[in-house]
Specification:
This protein has five helices and five strands; from the N terminus they run E-H-E-H-E-H-H-E-E-H. By secondary structure, the chain is an alpha+beta fold. Strand 4 and strand 5 form a beta hairpin. It starts with 7 loop residues before the first strand and ends with a helix.
Length: 180
């Protein structure tokens, strides 16, 4: 989803899981608090969400598509990784898949890259503002005492490691292409 239409953020659970029932009650509560604080932070910090809202969509299904790597039929416990998409919904959205008052519409796996090619990502600065607002909310409400975050050394987006998953995947893909 394009940033002008509301933006899309992904919030991962505290550890990789294929099904949310694998989280302990404490992990589920902490993840739920983080998801809610991040959604509210999007609403409070992104001007394009003025008068808008956030849809929360648990995902991980495209990883099970037969065309996804590794190609072929997959079983969910081995290949699916739960994550939550926070879809900013703007009353001024222009893309037909994100019209205000309608459910978001996603393409089939095979069409996803073409469908998303013109979407603009939230900026690193917008993401940092959201992280800061979520952190402040969680600490103020006593839901977290500390909150660790850093920036990816390549793209500057918030990340838990020196390099974010996306840049790490891109680097590995480029390395494997050059080895061929």
């Amino acid at each position: 989803m394009s940033r002008e239409d509301g933006g899309n953020l992904i919030v991962n659970p505290p550890r990789e899981i294929w099904e949310r029932s694998e989280l302990t009650p404490q992990e589920l509560a902490a993840w739920g608090a983080l998801v809610a604080a991040t959604g509210r932070a999007m609403i409070d910090t992104l001007p394009q969400l003025a008068g808008g809202c956030v849809n929360y969509w648990e995902a991980g299904n495209w990883s099970l598509n037969e065309a996804a790597e590794p190609r072929g039929i997959k079983n969910a416990p081995e290949h699916r990784r739960v994550h939550m998409h926070l879809l900013g919904r703007s009353p001024k959205a222009k893309h037909p898949a994100w019209r205000w008052g309608e459910a978001p519409k996603f393409p089939d796996y095979a069409e996803r890259l073409q469908w998303a090619k013109d979407f603009e990502r939230l900026t690193a600065e917008e993401c940092e503002q959201i992280v800061e607002a979520a952190k402040n909310r969680l600490i103020a409400r006593g839901e977290m005492k500390t909150f660790l975050s850093s920036r990816c050394g390549q793209c500057g987006y918030p990340a838990w490691n020196a390099i974010c998953e996306e840049c790490d995947s891109r680097t590995k893909s480029e390395q494997s292409s050059s080895e061929r």
